[in-house]
Queue: 3 jobs
Job 1
Amino acid sequence: MQHRYLLVIFAGVLLSLGCAKEEPVLTATLHAKCRDCVVSYAAGAAQSKKDTLLGVVDPASGDTVAEERQWSLQLKDGDNIYLRACRLRPDTAFGDIQVWVDGGVQSLQAQVDTTQECAEINQSAHGL
């Protein structure tokens, strides 16, 4: 009888472990706006990814202006968000660099003018 009692307890423990709730997944939207820059981004412990923003031609003026791009990442509450945009050529500055995060996490933002090379966000994210 005692073995059956221990078996029932053991089965209950295994069942409760199998039914443990997973942490909710948050969706963060990362944005960067710059011209002639490289953007690196990652969430949590994931390896960072890179993208290059060269700028877009304004049809009205024919000038090349800052390009804006966004990326969507899945993360858990408290995971780190890394978003960094740096000039491709530090000796040539084509306007301000802006980076920001929104979506299912609290908003984060950073901006630098032509005197600085990079704008960066590197901190833990929390759901709304």
Note: The mean pLDDT is 88.
Job 2
Amino acid sequence: MKKLMTLVLALIFVFGLVGCSANKVDKDVSVFKTENITRITFHTLPSGGQGFEVPNEYLAEITTWLGSFTVDKKADKALAPGSNSISVEIEYADGTSVKNGLSTTKIDGSTFYMKSEPAPECYFKILELPE
């Protein structure tokens, strides 16, 4: 009976570890794919969704900054006010595009906040915001 109980407890422990690792989010990987980007456009809610296309002269700098976005903590059901009021649309050489807010991202149905390096000066110029 002790052996059976030990086996059951061991199986519960193993399946518990497998379940935890299956839901683990890699927080060191960039949220945005930055290879083969051809165009980047920012959209803001205060401007009614008007797009602010990144000029070619700033494309490399903004691409590098977008590459610094990684997953942070899991978001509560109610997001902080202003979350994702600015979004980015990235177009790639193969014709695909992605659009995502700059505050959160969804992974396997769960919402996570993102963190990044500070925005470069050109970002504020592109959006015509005070630095």
Note: The longest strand covers residues 37-44.
Job 3
Amino acid sequence: MATVVFSIDPDLCGPVSVGTVRVIRTLEQRLGLSLSDALAAVNRAVFDGEIVRVPAPSEGAARQCVAALSTLPRVTAEIG
């Protein structure tokens, strides 16, 4: 099973993360995650400093997700 591995260099404004909506939407659209699952993954990356691994439904979906995430500032993504 393909996996998307990503991390985010957070841009925090107090207790709020700035610039993560596109990351959340990309995870939803490319990997079929629910909003709550996508948000939880992003929160782990931003607030816990975690390198997050998310299963992808296919190798193609993983490639598309990594390509989309790689265009976003402060996000590092690869297929794991």
Note: The beta strands are 3-8, 12-13, 16-17, 52-55, 75-79.
